[in-house]
């Protein structure tokens, strides 16, 4: 019998909508789920699609301050900006129903965490989640409530001794890191474009965690322009080692696909093929170190047609244990619908045609290479705290 995999989805999740012209268009979610459906991923053996109601205030308050939840409700109901709480800014404009929409996203990640921890599912995916910038008392970077942090708090409350959070979005996962900065039970790993060139400006290698939790914040900040070979080399050089060293009971991962070369906001040059490779790596590590327990979330990604649907359909396929050939043609009905609705011709296949080749860290360090220097800085800063040797695999 196939292992159960939960995919969180309902059209109600499209309500997280900052309005026309905002980069985080809910159309990217609809296009993704339509493509996943057209590819047969949602009907694969063991895959169950589950809807959710908004999270309760009690659930939100495990991470967010009561004053902030009240502010979100007030802004949502009355349309009034509250800049002290990050509401009504260019990044996080107020919209009607904002509280309910953001709380429903949180509920999706909670449902996935509950399913994975209880054993009802081996993996769960919430592509609407991954709102990693939200802080306990403020919205930030398109994120109102921090669903990843709420899900991690639930896992800890339900008995998880250690939770690893892996974030491969182009932007530093600052909110999740901040919330668990002093908690040695939570490992936060963020591989991102350097804060010297991209919001939020944090996530440097020397940021390793608070007192008593040193080594549980892992930051790998890559130079703008990093492509597949450097991105994959960096992840391979750090992520497997720290996950094995930490030995989590469950992995929560954030798969923002704004690392792609076509993304209009970030400055990395990663392909769909490299993103698929990393999703597969996280999946395999979950089976290796966490008895398969894996909650995968969406996140950033603003190439609405060309990138997001393919990247997250591949994520759904990997979680659902569906062997989806990268050369698979995008279903004609899906492509024609995109052309009719958007006036744009989408890619023809699930692949960008990239090789995915990279040079493993064990094959030598090049001090003249910016990526290698970033890797070295992270390994030197973090590995000793986890009992690992930064000079050896």
UniProtKB/TrEMBL annotation:
<dbReference type="InterPro" id="IPR037138">
    <property type="entry name" value="His_deacetylse_dom_sf"/>
</dbReference>
<keyword id="KW-0006">Acetoin catabolism</keyword>
<dbReference type="InterPro" id="IPR023801">
    <property type="entry name" value="His_deacetylse_dom"/>
</dbReference>
<dbReference type="GO" id="GO:0004407">
    <property type="term" value="F:histone deacetylase activity"/>
</dbReference>
<dbReference type="GO" id="GO:0045150">
    <property type="term" value="P:acetoin catabolic process"/>
</dbReference>
<dbReference type="GO" id="GO:0040029">
    <property type="term" value="P:epigenetic regulation of gene expression"/>
</dbReference>
<dbReference type="InterPro" id="IPR003085">
    <property type="entry name" value="AcuC"/>
</dbReference>
<dbReference type="Pfam" id="PF00850">
    <property type="entry name" value="Hist_deacetyl"/>
</dbReference>
<dbReference type="InterPro" id="IPR000286">
    <property type="entry name" value="HDACs"/>
</dbReference>
<comment type="similarity">
    <text>Belongs to the histone deacetylase family.</text>
</comment>
<dbReference type="InterPro" id="IPR023696">
    <property type="entry name" value="Ureohydrolase_dom_sf"/>
</dbReference>
<feature type="domain" description="Histone deacetylase">
    <location>
        <begin position="22"/>
        <end position="317"/>
    </location>
</feature>
<protein>
    <recommendedName>
        <fullName>Acetoin utilization protein AcuC</fullName>
    </recommendedName>
</protein>
<comment type="pathway">
    <text>Ketone degradation; acetoin degradation.</text>
</comment>
């Amino acid at each position: 019998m196939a292992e159960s995999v939960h995919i969180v989805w309902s059209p109600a999740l499209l309500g997280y909508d900052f309005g026309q012209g905002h980069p985080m268009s809910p159309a990217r979610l609809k296009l993704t789920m339509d493509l996943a459906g057209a590819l047969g991923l949602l009907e694969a053996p063991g895959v169950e699609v589950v809807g959710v109601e908004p999270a309760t205030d009690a659930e939100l308050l495990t991470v967010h301050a009561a004053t902030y939840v009240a502010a979100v409700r007030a802004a949502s109901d009355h349309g009034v900006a509250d800049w002290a709480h990050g509401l009504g800014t260019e990044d996080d404009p107020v919209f009607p129903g904002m509280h309910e929409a953001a709380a429903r996203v949180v509920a999706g990640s909670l449902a996935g965490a509950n399913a994975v921890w209880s054993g009802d599912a081996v993996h769960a995916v919430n592509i609407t989640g991954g709102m990693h910038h939200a802080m306990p008392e403020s919205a930030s970077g398109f994120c109102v409530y921090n669903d990843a942090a709420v899900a991690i708090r639930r896992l800890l409350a339900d008995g998880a001794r250690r939770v690893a959070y892996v974030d491969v979005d182009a932007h530093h996962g600052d909110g999740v890191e901040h919330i668990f900065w002093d908690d040695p039970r939570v490992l936060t790993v963020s591989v991102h474009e350097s804060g010297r060139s991209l919001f939020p400006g944090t996530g440097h290698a020397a940021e390793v965690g608070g007192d008593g939790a040193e080594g549980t914040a892992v930051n790998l900040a890559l130079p703008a322009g990093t492509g597949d070979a450097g991105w994959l080399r960096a992840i391979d050089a750090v992520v497997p080692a720290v996950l094995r060293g930490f030995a989590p009971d469950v992995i929560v991962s954030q798969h923002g696909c704004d690392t792609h070369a076509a993304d209009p906001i970030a400055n990395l040059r990663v392909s769909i093929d490299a993103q698929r490779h990393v999703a597969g790596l996280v999946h395999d590590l979950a089976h290796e170190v966490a008895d398969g327990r894996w909650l995968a979330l969406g996140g950033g990604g603003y190439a609405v047609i060309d990138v997001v649907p393919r990247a997250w359909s591949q994520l759904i396929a990997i979680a659902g244990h569906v062997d989806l050939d990268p050369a698979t043609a995008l279903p004609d009905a899906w492509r024609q619908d995109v052309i009719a609705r958007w006036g744009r011709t989408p890619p023809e296949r699930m692949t960008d045609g990239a090789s995915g080749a990279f040079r493993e860290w064990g094959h030598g360090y090049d001090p003249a290479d910016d990526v290698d220097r970033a890797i070295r800085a992270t390994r030197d800063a973090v590995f000793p705290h986890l009992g690992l040797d930064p000079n050896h695999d």
